[in-house]
Amino acid sequence: MSTNVETPSSGMDAVKWLVAIVLLAGAVVGNYMYAEQSVLLRAIGVVVAVAAGLGIAAVTEKGRTFLAFAKEARIEVRKVVWPTRQETTHTTLIVMVATVIMALILWGLDGILFRAVGFLTGLEI
């Protein structure tokens, strides 16, 4: 178990986040302002602005922490032993059969309780 001490972020991080947010907002606003332009040009502009904003956000302290977390998560996902197609099919069938059996049991109990309450109250429907 590791203990990570958070370091206070520098003033430049705030500026970087502001620039990243302005770029992302500019991509959205620019897409609407230049609606008469070609869709291809607008799409390229949005992709470039979003990539630049994400690139700037990635060099902040929180961005580096997120990238490190994403790399570690990717390593952990590679360690997972995924079920085979046959195992998945068998498990799905088992769940479906169990669901049908439980539905039938609950349907039967509902019918019994409905009749019992009707008998006790004298209100047959």
Q: How does this model look, in words?
A:
The structure is a single chain. This protein is mainly α and 125 residues long. The N and C termini lie far apart (64 Å). Helix 1 runs antiparallel to helix 2 (39-58). It is elongated. It contains four helices and no strands. The longest helix is centred in the last third of the chain and has 37 residues, at 85-121.
Number of strands: 0
> For the terminal residues, how far apart are their CA atoms?
64 Å
What is the overall shape?
elongated
Roughly what fraction of the amino acids lie in strands?
Answer: under 5%
Rg value: 29 Å
Instruction: Please mark out the parts with pLDDT under 50 across 5 or more consecutive residues, or reply none.
Output: none
Largest sheet: none
Oligomer: single chain
The average pLDDT value, as a whole number, equals: 91
Number of helices: 4
Order of helices and strands: HHHH
The helix-and-strand class reads: mainly alpha
Q: Helix proportion of residues, in percent?
A: over 70%
What's the quick description here?
The protein is mainly α.
Could you outline the blueprint of secondary structure elements for this entry?
Elements: H1 11-33, H2 39-58, H3 61-79, H4 85-121
Helix pairs in contact: 1-2
Keywords:
125 residues, mainly alpha
